[in-house]
Structures are given as C-alpha cells and as structure tokens.
TrEMBL record:
It comes from Actinocorallia longicatena. This is Cytochrome P450. InterPro entries: Cyt_P450, Cyt_P450_B, Cyt_P450_sf. Belongs to the cytochrome P450 family. Transmembrane segments: none annotated. Pfam families: p450.
C-alpha cells in the first residue's frame, strides 16, 4: 500500500505496521493541509486534520467545529438508534455545558481522592490474582478488571452485571466503524440499539431505586442533580450512563496494555522506570498516552463555510481530529518517534485537545493507571509482554484485544 492510497478510515490501514501509518500522517502534516478522505459507505465530505495546532484550534472553536450530531462515528446515527445518541460528548453548548456542570461533580479532586483506597485495594486483588494465575492474557486478567470495577463502583452497578456492561461497551465502540460486522451476523443497527438499550435499562432501574433509596454513588448524585432549575431527564441519564461506561473502561484498559508493550520494547525505559518507580510513573503514563494515543480521532462537523488548514471547508463538511497524528507532530514534540518517559513538556492530546470537550475523567484515569502500574512493577519487576499485541479491529480506538504476558 503506497502513501497515496492509504486511507485511515479503512480497517486495512490500521493493520499496517505502525511505521507505515506514521509515514502517512507525517506526509499530511508536512503538506500542512487538511487531507480529503474517501469514507466507504458514508455520504458527505470528510477531511483529516493531522497537525497538533490544527487539532487544538478546531477543539477550541466548537461554534465552528460542532460535535453534533455525533463525535464518535463516521456516519450519522441511524434513525432507529437515534434516541440512544446525543450524550454530552456529541453535544454543543448550551446543552453540553449544562450536562458537564452536573457530571463534573463526580470528578472533583475530592471525589477522585475518595476513590483512591478503593482503587488501591482492587489493584492489590488484581496483582494477587496474577501471582496465582501466572502467565496469561494481560488484557483479560489485568488491564480489563480495574477500569470496569471503578466505573461500576462509581455508578453503583451490581457485580453480577459487570459482564453485560463490558460486552455492551465493546460492541458500541466497534459500531463506530462502518466495516464492523456484529459477531452474531445480525443487523448492525439492531445490535447497536439492543446494547444501548441494555445500558439505558440498567440506568432506568438504578435511577428509580436511588430515588427511593439514595446511596453513596454517582447515580444518586445524578438523579438528584438540579442545575439552573432543571433536573436530568430519564433519556439524559441513560445517555450519560452509556458515555461513562464506554469512556470509563475502554481507554484506561487500552493504555495499560500499551504501557506493558512499550516497556517491553524499550528495555532502557523500563530500567529507568524501575530505578525510581514513584518518581517516574507519572511521566511513563503521560508518554504512553502520547505515544500510543488510545483514541485515534474524534469527528467535528462544520457549522459554516471556513478557510482552515489550507482548505476552503464548507458548511456540513466533516473533519476528523487525528489525535494519533497530533501526538507525533514534529512541531509540537522533540523527536516524537522516540518513547521517552522523561519527556517534558508533554502537551499530548490523548484526552482530547484543550476546549470544552477535554476528558472529564482524565485525572481518574491517571489515578487508575499509576496505582495499578505501581502495584504490578513493585511486585513483578520482570512483567513483560510475551508476544506481539493482537489489535482490536477499529479505526476509532487503538485498542488491544489480547496481550500475552509473563513475569
């Protein structure tokens, strides 16, 4: 596949060697122009934004680069599933600002600090399980449990329903790619509506229960929240639940798997980390987020004609903000192809670029990552990837489906 025929909206592109993908984005950055994209099976005009400055500028200007009708899918939501979409990640102000004010109460430093003990205990349990189990699939047995446990604990979801939450979130993420085929062969829209319906149904049940019997969890806070004289509707609660479940599990799990892979591939960085674990862990997390970019892109839709990134964009055109490319921009990072856990400054956009949609859960994710990694590398300093990671089929997330580990 030549640079000219590469297309990052195709699954085939993400099966290429990472160096080939980097070469494609480097060519776009050098051209300093939004790159036209041919999106198979989706109507509309698409462009890729690859430079750090362009991604940041578009993120700061939601009045021009709208998150509506959807930010996480190439195609607009199908009519049959539209009632499930429209969580705040796919909203503009004033609706976005209202919901963000409510949800932000769950992500204050005090609230996140209150989760520290819970996260530490779960990290110890995961490490104990790893010691008993021995070499295994790192994704299934180490990376997956913690973020799922944390978000379900915050929401007050019973443990027996964790599996259903995980399955729904993984299918929903995969549905953002037009080429994805559900494992059971059913119609995509039907399956997507079903999975969203499961999450919305859980929220409806929990919300009704918490109104009668309040508890110390996020659902209780949300159903009793009142901003500007308005409370959340049942539909808004369901959409928020879907967003928090998907966003709160996938990216943290993915980053954990990338950290192990990167430290295995870069032995000198592992040795540096182990020489000062507490001091080096925060930098290791930030550099892994930059280098791996767990979320590859977000979509924006032009609200009016605009000259931007060397192109005359038109109202209704869609742009993909390629975080994975912005995080390798030579103008924003010194030697961006090098994995360096001491990198400073590190203005990566793995949690989204500065603007109203910067990830609310960024500090919670950092706490989860540093807590589990500290526990793992304290007890298993030789923990490493025993094989190349098996990539999750997606153009949207740089996910890892399986990663064999040993120690």
């Amino acid at each position: 596949m030549s640079l000219e025929t590469m297309n990052p909206t195709d699954f085939a592109f993400w099966n290429l060697d990472s160096a080939e993908r980097d070469s494609y984005f480097a060519r776009i950055r050098k051209a300093a122009r939004a790159e036209p994209l041919d999106v198979a099976g989706v109507e509309g005009t698409f462009y890729a934004l690859a430079r750090h400055d362009d991604v940041a500028e578009a993120s700061r200007r939601p009045e021009l680069f709208s998150s509506e009708p959807i930010a996480t899918s190439l195609a607009d939501p199908p009519e049959a599933a539209r009632r499930f979409f429209g969580a705040m990640i796919s909203m503009d102000d004033p609706r976005h600002a209202r919901l963000r004010r409510i949800v932000s109460r769950a992500f204050t430093p005090r609230m996140i600090g209150g989760l520290r003990g819970t996260i530490e205990r779960e990290a110890v349990r995961i490490a104990d399980d790893l010691a008993d189990r021995g070499p295994c699939d790192f994704v299934e047995h180490v990376a997956r449990p913690l973020p799922l446990f944390v978000i379900c604990t915050m929401m007050g979801i019973p443990e027996e329903r964790y599996g259903a939450v995980l399955e729904a979130s993984e299918i929903i993420l995969a549905m953002g790619d037009p080429g994805f085929v559900p494992p059971d062969g059913r119609d995509r829209v039907t399956v997507m509506a079903e999975k969203f319906g499961i999450l919305h149904g859980m929220m409806a049940e929990l919300a009704a229960e918490r109104r009668e019997r309040p508890a110390d969890d996020l659902v209780t806070a949300l159903v009793n929240a009142d901003v500007d004289g308005q409370a959340l509707t049942a539909e808004e609660l369901g959409k928020l639940f879907g967003l928090l479940v998907v966003a709160g599990t996938e990216t943290t799990r993915t980053t954990l798997s990338h950290v192990l892979t990167l430290l295995t591939e870069h032995e000198e960085q592992r040795e540096l980390l182990l020489s000062g674990l507490d001091e080096r862990l925060p930098g290791t997390v930030e550099e892994s987020l930059r280098y791996a970019s767990p979320v590859s892109w977000m979509r924006r839709t032009l609200t009016r004609d605009l000259d931007f990134a060397g192109r005359s964009l038109r109202e209704g055109d869609r742009v993909l903000l390629y975080y994975c490319s912005a995080n390798r921009d030579e103008l924003a990072f010194h030697d961006p192809g090098r994995f360096d856990i001491t990198r400073s400054p590190n203005p990566h956009v793995a949690f989204g670029a500065p603007g109203p949609h910067f990830c609310l859960g960024a500090n919670l994710a950092r706490l989860e990552l540093t807590t589990l990694l500290r526990e793992l590398f304290t007890r298993f300093p030789g923990l490493h990837a025993a094989a190349a990671p098996v990539r999750q089929p997606s153009t949207f997330v740089n996910g890892v489906a399986r990663l064999d580990c040993a120690f």
